[in-house]
UniProtKB/TrEMBL annotation:
The keyword Hydrolase applies. SMART domains: PGAM. It comes from Rhodotorula toruloides (strain NP11). Signal peptide: none annotated. Pfam families: His_Phos_1. This is Fructose-2,6-bisphosphatase. GO terms for biological process: negative regulation of glycolytic process; regulation of pentose-phosphate shunt. InterPro entries: His_Pase_superF_clade-1, His_PPase_superfam, PG/BPGM_mutase_AS, Phosphoglycerate_Mutase.
């Protein structure tokens, strides 16, 4: 039985990465240099088979994912799922404020309170981000683990499942923590280190307890029963989140819910005591559903994904590569302030000029 191959990617450099601001849900676009980074990443993954792509709806991660999707030669194109569950930590009313480590530091707190610390009203704690990472594991990653465990490589199924998550630095640390907890719920959080823009980490994941397979429907591989794949097996890259129809209420967003979840820590704020979110921050809340309609070519959902009293099956994982960024070798920021400017899609015809001089040799083959 082959393990699932998971590649986790941090987004390209954004405009907010160049400023000392609290920027979690602020939807800053890629800088021109960040767009060049995303192009390099796409070149590196062009010949790597991809089973599915999952991306944050924030444009810096979504655009990075689209550049890989567009460059990748997998046929048919892999399904592309966009979800706010992969968003960066929400800093609440500190969003857009100058970064001040002294004012907002939680380093002095005990471990449990550090995890529950919220730096501003309506902000998420690390525990809140961890809950979103858990949902990604249950709804997006685990179905591929189960499908891979059911079908060993053979002449008819030679390829492993390889999925990619495009997200943000803090969120990626919490996703790795979620995988560790799926192996040992008692494990304590240890920060996994910094993630360079467009750096990727590759992880092998497999079931530690194969008794979980008996709960799978018979259609565990090749899509959900009763649904037909699209004509010609092709999927178009989805529109940017700003082009998508909003859900009815911003207060039903996963970030809003998770940030108001009760906590035993004295650092947390009870839901009843939470002030209303000021109007100027409503635009930062997600407008897409946390769990979008499932692409019919994906493995079916884990039957117990919504039963949060039921832990995920015990998993084993192995970090094969961490923070790989060879695809950026030789890439230089365009002078004159152009590289630090926001990327405008109208600049697409000049992408060769901004790509930093030639193609990279840093491939990402499995």
């Amino acid at each position: 039985m082959a393990p699932l191959i998971l590649t986790m990617v941090r987004h390209g450099e954004s405009k907010d990465n160049l400023t000392a601001l609290w920027a979690g849900h602020r939807d800053a676009p890629l800088s021109t240099h960040g767009y060049s980074q995303a192009l390099r990443l796409g070149e590196a993954f062009a010949d790597v088979p991809i089973t599915a792509i999952y991306a944050s709806d924030l444009s810096r991660a979504h655009t990075t994912a689209k550049k890989v999707y567009e460059a990748n030669k997998t046929t048919p194109k892999p399904p592309f799922t966009v979800s706010p569950l992969l968003r960066e930590q929400f800093f609440g009313e500190a969003e857009g404020a100058p970064w001040d480590a002294g004012k907002y530091s939680s380093a002095h707190l005990p471990w449990e309170d550090h995890r529950a610390f919220r730096l501003a009203p309506n902000a998420e704690s690390l525990n809140d981000v961890a809950r979103r990472a858990d949902l990604v594991l249950r709804h997006f990653v685990l179905p591929h683990v189960l499908a891979t465990a059911q079908v060993p490589p053979s002449a008819s199924h030679p390829e492993q499942h390889h999925i990619m998550l495009f997200a943000h630095g803090i969120w990626l640390s919490e996703m790795l923590f979620a995988l560790k907890r799926a192996g040992d719920p008692r494990i304590r959080f240890v920060k996994s280190g910094g993630y360079q823009n467009t750096a990727w980490t590759r992880i092998e994941i497999e079931l530690d307890d194969h008794s979980a397979l008996h709960a799978l429907p018979s259609s565990a591989v090749g899509g959900q029963a009763g649904q037909q794949p699209p004509q010609n097996g092709q999927y178009a890259s989805p529109p940017a989140p700003s082009e998508a129809a909003p859900t009815p209420s911003p207060h039903s967003s996963p970030s809003r819910k998770s940030a108001s979840s009760p906590s035993k820590s004295r650092s947390a704020v009870d839901d009843a005591d939470r002030p209303p979110l000021p109007d100027e921050f409503h635009s930062l809340l997600p407008t897409l559903p946390a769990i979008p309609p499932r692409d019919p070519t994906l493995p079916p959902a884990w039957p117990h994904a919504d039963d949060h009293s039921r832990p995920v099956p015990k998993l084993r994982h192995r970090v094969v590569v961490f923070g790989q960024a060879d695809h950026l070798n030789g890439l230089k920021r365009t002078r004159g302030g152009v590289g630090s400017g926001a990327w405008d899609d109208k600049q697409r015809g000049l992408k060769e000029f901004f790509a930093g001089g030639g193609k990279t040799n840093g491939t990402a083959k499995q």
